[in-house]
Each structure stands twice: as structure tokens, then as C-alpha cells.
Amino acid sequence: MVAAVDASTSAIVGFSELVLPGDGKGGGQHYGTAVLPEHRGHGLGLWMKAEAILHAHGLHPGLALLTDTAADNTPVLRVNDALGYRPTHTAVEYQLNL
After folding, report:
1. In the chain, fewer beta carbons within 10 Å around the N or the C end?
2. How far, in Å, CA of 59 to CA of 5, rounded?
3. pTM for this model (two decimals)
4. Are 44 and 13 in contact (CB under 8 A)?
């Protein structure tokens, strides 16, 4: 996990979570990247996700990484594109309220 910290308050203002297999085989999964609204627009999402990828590459060179992003999350789609992620499939989610 990579976190962005506001130096003036020591508050965490963003994170990027990348889960890796312990043996370095298979694939890693980027589960979440988020930045507080008041800190958006400064490239923190890109920086945190890139740092997580660099860390993973240092531990397990050649490991495949996957990420899931909602189709309407334009900022993170841009980050993913800038980092070299390419779409592989789409998913449809259903909900039933009981």
C-alpha cells in the first residue's frame, strides 16, 4: 500500500492498494486508488499507483498486474492508461434489493 500524506497536517489524503502473491507467481491485483476531493488534480493518484507498481516490480519482476476500474471513473481510467494498463474485458454487475 502506498499513501499520500499532507505534510502540513500529517493526514493521509490518498492511497493505492496493490496485493501481490507471496510466491511472486500468478498475478497481482490493484484493488483501490483514491484521493480525498480537496487534494485531487495534483497527480497523486498517478504517483501512488506508479510507486506501487515500481515496488511490485522490484519484488517480482515480470509479475502480471490487473486493475478494475468503473467505466465512469474517468480520472482513474486516465491514470491506468498513462501507466500502460490496457482493457482486457468488461463486467456487468447486478443488484437485487430484498
Report:
1. C
2. 24
3. 0.88
4. yes
